[in-house]
Amino acid sequence: MVGKYKVITLCGSTRFKDEFIEAQKKLTLEGNIVISVGLFGHCGDTEVWDGMDEGTLSKTKEMLDDMHKRKIDMADEIYVINKDGYIGESTKSEIEYARLNNKAVHYLVDKNFI
């Protein structure tokens, strides 16, 4: 917590840009400090994939993945944008990282109904 405000990091596939923006707005209006992604690689921010080949990560993608784990470190909890129940490999690793670091994990779509 930062003062009286809970800090929440958004996690999920960057293909769900609209859902990220809506969750950020909703959680902010509820009185939370929200940390989000810096780029939407699946929605036009091609810098994420700079020089990326099949089976390899670009240096930018590696940096962004590491930075997102640091964002989780700063948070009290994470909020997973799992539209239609979708959780990709990067998001799975973020959920696991959050749990290993005793962060609460909440979901856009209740995972019990997926």
Walk me through what this model shows.
With 114 residues, the chain is of the alpha/beta class. It has one domain (7-113). It has three helices and four strands. Strands 2-1-3-4 form a four-stranded parallel beta sheet, sandwiched between helices. α2 runs parallel beside α3 (89-100). The longest helix is centred in the middle third of the chain and has 16 residues, at 59-74. The mean pLDDT is 87.
Keywords, please?
alpha/beta, single chain, 4-stranded parallel β-sheet, 114 residues, 3 helices
Strand/helix succession: EHEHEHE
Q: Number of domains in the coordinates? A: 1
Instruction: Report the uncertain regions.
Output: none
Mean pLDDT value: 87
Shape: globular
* Main β sheet profile: 4 strands, parallel
State which percent range the strand residues make up: 15-25%
Number of helices, where a helix is a run of at least 4 consecutive DSSP H or I residues: 3
- Over all CA atoms, what is the radius of gyration? 14 Å
Order of the strands making up the biggest sheet? 2-1-3-4
**Fraction in helix:** 25-40%
Number of strands: 4
What class do helices, strands and sheet pairing give?
Answer: alpha/beta
Q: How widely separated are the two ends?
A: 31 Å
Task: Write a brief caption for the model.
With 114 residues, the chain is of the alpha/beta class. The chain is built from three helices and four strands, in the order E-H-E-H-E-H-E. Strand 1, helix 1 and strand 2 form a beta-alpha-beta unit.
What is the secondary structure topology, with strand pairs?
Blueprint: E1 7-12, H1 17-29, E2 33-35, H2 59-74, E3 77-81, H3 89-100, E4 104-107
Parallel strand pairs: 1-2, 1-3, 3-4
